[in-house]
Each structure stands twice: as structure tokens, then as C-alpha cells.
Amino acid sequence: MSALTAAQAMADGIHRVLPDAECALVPMADGGEGAAITIADALGGTMVTVPSHDALGRPITGEFGWVPGKKLAVVETASASGLEAIAPGARDAGVASSFGTGEIIKAALDKGAKHLILGLGGSATNDAGAGLFQALGVKFLDARGAEVPPGGLALQNLNRIDLSGLDPRLADCTIEAACDVDNPLVGPEGASAVFGPQKGADANLVAQLDAALSVWARAAQQATGRSVADLPGAGAAGGIGAALAAFTTAKLRTGVEIVIDAVGLRDQVRGADWVFTGEGGMDSQTKHGKTPWGVASVAAEFGKPVIAFAGKVGEGAGELLRPVGSLSAAAPGSSSAESGSSSARTTGYGQPGFVAIVPISQGVTDLATALRQGPANLANAAEMTTRLFSFR
Questions:
Q1: How many other C-beta atoms are found inside a 10 Å radius of the C-beta of residue 366?
Q2: Measuring CA to CA, which residue among 273, 267, 266, 295 is closest to residue 386?
Q3: What is the Cα Rg of the chain in Å?
């Protein structure tokens, strides 16, 4: 399900019980894959397709979310430079390039973008964004003045970074990078050591890539005066986080925070009686930057109760629950759960968490069937939940 499909399914279930209930549909994401279409759906935008190249330089069709009224473009590194697009046996972190992501950003600038949101998840690359910025006019030169070849491994021969050709339109953009890791660029917790193996790097290549990114960091500091190697989040997307921090005014933020602001979630939650959210699976990791926890955190600001729906409720999900107090205090149509009210303080609604986590699967089934029946199962679960708290 897309986020919009899931929101509509929950509204359908609610309306079976409360036909006159006003349901505000706010598609949400955590800044990873799917963020572009989610934000576009939430803000009445569209998806724009553009020619690009994958991490191995093969021609593909990339895309970005476009909201013309806000001149907002949402670009995911996974769209062009994604790991899932490369067969496991073909993955090579040494030569993989982020050039295709730069091509998509350039297309967004050509469209007139003044606000860029970049999702830094799911990349196949480890080139410190060199390919991305090559597509935007930057030159990465060796000691002879020749441009280094694509890929992170070639950066071991980097001597100088020439920023004179950097697309000037970037300077006029607000740039936000959705970064859900705090890894530095280099070292034992850096991009190469932590994420390189899943991108096809063995121990020897990891060591070479880490050394190459150290060379890049020194050259970047010489070119910009900025030291970004140890910046939390610099290692995101194979070092694209570091490149954005070095060459632009981008702010590195958690993905869910960026999406919360972009779709105006607070404005909708402020006037709500109840908040429904969910994800494919929920467990103890949900509170570490996942979408439902971000929604619950916003709801807590206003003392609103939250119910979450999940395809699978995993280990540790009970840690996410909060005391419910008197449910009638926040029954649909009432206004007693206003921010700062005694109801919010005594029920636990002022703390991030959920009144309940409701599994949506009905009976034992295989994954393909569960996915196919997901919207119907979610609507049924929302209906049953609404019947319970609407009971008089």
C-alpha cells in the first residue's frame, strides 16, 4: 500500500461506523524509499519521470516528486542510485556512482525547484557523492588535472576538487537531506565499514574505500574550508551526506521530521480527536525514527490519543503502548483532549506512544495474499476499532 492508500482504507473503515466523521488524510513517510510519492500525494503534487543512469552507469528512467505550488522537488537516492536495482552478484561498491541522482536533481532544478528534499536511503554507492556533484558541474581531479573515473575507489587518486562549475541554482535552493543514520564518513563506524559490505565490498575493498574517502575529505576541506568527515550523518548514502554538507547549505535532518514539516502534519493533528497511523511491521525498533513513532510524537505535543495498525506486530511492540485512562474523554466529536488539558496529562497522551497496536491480518495466510488483501484488512481493522471506542 502507498501511504495514501493506507490512509484512505482507514477512513473507509471509520466511515462504516461514523458516516459523518471528518477524516483528514495525511500520507506520511520516514524519508526513505516512498517519500517522494508520499509527499507529492499529501501536497497535491505529481511524480515526474526523467532519463537517468543507475549506479553502474546503465540508462534507466528515474523520477522525483514535484509540488509546483511550492516549487518543491523530492528526490530519493534510491530512484537512480538504489541498491535494490542492482542484482546481488553485480553489486560493486568500488565503481558504483551516484551520478544518476545528480541527473535527477538537475532535472528538478530545470523544472524550477527552489526547495529540495533529498532522501538518503537505499543507495548502492560509496563515492561520497562525487558522481552526484559531477552531474551538477563539479570536477574531481587527479594530480595530472584529469577527472577521476566513477566510483569511490577512484577517489584514492583525487588531488583537487574544482567547484567553479557547480550549478549556481543550488545556492538559491532550500535543501534538506533526510538522514536517518548518524555515522561519520570514515573510520570503523563510517560509510565504508558499516554499509560497504551490503553494497558488495569485501574486507579488503572496505579498507581501500575508507582510505579513499579520507582522501576525498581532505580535498573537500581544502576546497571549501569545511571539515565534514566526522559530522554525524556524513556517512549516509555512501557519503552523500558529507558532500551535501561540504558543497551546499543543506541541513541534515531525520527523515520523519522533514516529512512532518513538509506535509503539515501538526496542523491536522492539532484539531483531531483521534489519530490513526501504522506500518507494515511494528516492534521495538519503531521508536527509532520510524513513521508511526514520528506521528505519535506529534500527537503527544497536542495530547491526542493514537492507535496504530500493523501487518505484523513484532517483539517489543508492547514497549510502545501508553496508559489510556478514560477513553470517553477523547471520544470522536469531543474536544476534551486539547493540548495541556488534564485529560492529556493523566492518560499518558502527552507522551509519545499508542493507545493500542492493532494487527490487521485475518487468519493464517501467505505474504502475497496478505499484501493483496492489505487495504481491505486495514479498513476492517479500522472499522472494528472504531466500533470499540464508539460504544456507549
A1: 8
A2: 273
A3: 23
- Domain 3-24+267-390 CATH (choose: 3.40.50.10350, 3.40.190.10, 2.40.50.150, 3.40.50.1010): 3.40.50.10350
Q: Which residue has the cell 584514492?
A: 156
Q: Average pLDDT in the 189-211 region?
A: 95
pLDDT at 182: 86
Q: What is the per-residue pLDDT across 209-242, written as a single tens digit (0 to 9) for each?
A: 999 999 999 999 999 999 999 999 999 999 999 9
CATH of domain 35-256: 3.90.1510.10
Could you tell me where the DSSP H helices lie in the chain?
3-17, 35-42, 77-81, 99-111, 130-135, 191-195, 203-224, 240-247, 255-263, 265-270, 291-301, 342-347, 367-372, 374-390
Domain edges within the chain: 3-24+267-390, 35-256
What are 89-146's pLDDT values in tens digits? 999 999 999 999 999 999 999 999 999 999 998 899 999 999 999 999 999 999 999 9
The answer to whether residues 265 and 295 touch, using CB atoms and an 8 Å cutoff, is: yes
Residue-level pLDDT at 348: 62
Q: How far apart are CA 121 and CA 85, in angstroms?
A: 13
Q: Which residues of 95-110 are buried (b: 16+ CB within 10 A; e: fewer)?
A: bbbbbbbbbbbbbbbe
Rounded to two decimals, the pTM is 0.83
List, for residues 329-354, the tens digit of each pLDDT value.
Answer: 444 433 333 334 434 444 567 788 99
